[in-house]
Amino acid sequence: MQWNNASEFFAMGGYGFYVWGSFGLCALAMIAEPLLVCQRRNRAIKQIQNQLN
Amino acid sequence: MINWFKYSAPSTFYPLAGKLIPVFWTLAALLGAIGLYISFFVAPTDAQQGEGYRIIFIHVPASWMSMFIYCIMAFWSLLGLTFNTRLSGMMTRALAPTGALFAFLSLWTGALWGKPMWGAWWVWDARLTSELILFFLYIGFMALQAAIDDPRRADRAGALLSLVGVVNVPIIYFSVKWWNTLHQGASVSLTKSPSMATTMLWGMLTMALAFWAYTIAVALMRARTIMLEREGNTEWVQHLPDVKEAA
């Protein structure tokens, strides 16, 4: 392992902005997408239920 | 022999996909955790690029996925046009937004990598430009689907677009060979041994597998939702426990 402490880890050898900007947005997108799909699914189910009642 | 046509019926595919989704979410989480661990704690510092190179662990898998997903869409489109199955159009539609997301992430992480290493967020290089075109193809596919009201016609139009657009995928892949590009050549190829440290390679492959599992999970979820939206007036949907329960 090449990190002595947490601040060194977050600094990423001076590339912190670029590395965390990449990984951060990636993580955000991959959390948001399934949530949006869930929302769409719930909407679809609600619509069918409204039709039935 | 497995009767594949049986599974191409939404009514049999829906429960099957429901069972597979948690499996692929688990795989995605496990592989993602291992991949991130290798990316940050196992892979050594690069001699030239310092810690900045670590972007590779998402940049390359995201770029691969953006190309794979388009190929899979083209494959489903071909099946759809040949056998006229409903599932093909639904799967193509379910994959497009995820493909667009990965194309975007590929461009985004590429920009964040290009800035410190090349000194530019963007250059009109063959690799970058063809990837941008791929992103536009995804957006175009989704816009086309949204513009046509009749879902079956939208499926056929979308299938044609994805089949024509697939010509762009080999262009992206070989762009670094065919043209002089600022973008580096392939570090991993099928024909020769990879030109990178083994731990870096393993990190990248694990992340790529995690992205695969993620893609399958989210695409199956979206396909199921599309089935509910399109077939809401059919018996099988109305008798689904999912629909009955929450009422």
Give a brief outline of the structure.
Chain A is mainly alpha-helical and 53 residues long.
Question: Which structural class do you get from the secondary structure elements of chain A?
Answer: mainly alpha
Distance between the termini of chain B: 40 Å
Elements of chain B, N to C (H/E): HHHHHHHHHH
Instruction: Tell me what portion of residues of chain A adopts beta-strand conformation.
Output: under 5%
Estimated share of beta-strand residues of chain B: under 5%
pLDDT < 50 runs, ≥5 residues of chain B:
none
Q: Count all strands of chain A and give the number.
A: 0
Can you tell me the overall shape of chain A? rod-shaped
- Using only CA atoms, what is the Rg of chain B? 20 Å
Mean pLDDT of chain A: 92
Number of domains of chain A: 1
Please tell me the overall pLDDT of chain B.
90
Largest interface: A-B, 32 and 41 residues
Helical content band of chain B:
over 70%
Describe the structure.
- The complex is a heterodimer of chains A (53) and B (247).
- Chain A is an all-alpha fold.
- Chain A has one domain (6-52).
- Helices cover 81% and strands 0% of the residues of chain A.
- Chain A has 2 helices and no strands.
- Chain A has helices at residues 6-11, 16-52.
- The mean pLDDT of chain A is 92.
- With 247 residues, chain B is mainly α.
- Chain B has one domain.
- Helix content of chain B is 76%, strand content 0%.
- The model of chain B has no long low-confidence stretch (mean pLDDT 90).
- The interface between A and B is large, with 32 and 41 residues.
Descriptors for this entry?
heterodimer, A: 53 residues, mainly alpha, 2 helices, B: 247 residues, 76% helix
Would you spell out the secondary-structure blueprint of this structure?
The complex is a heterodimer of chains A (53) and B (247).
Chain A: H1 6-11, H2 16-52
Chain B: H1 4-7, H2 10-42, H3 56-83, H4 86-118, H5 126-147, H6 151-165, H7 168-178, H8 198-230, H9 235-238, H10 241-245
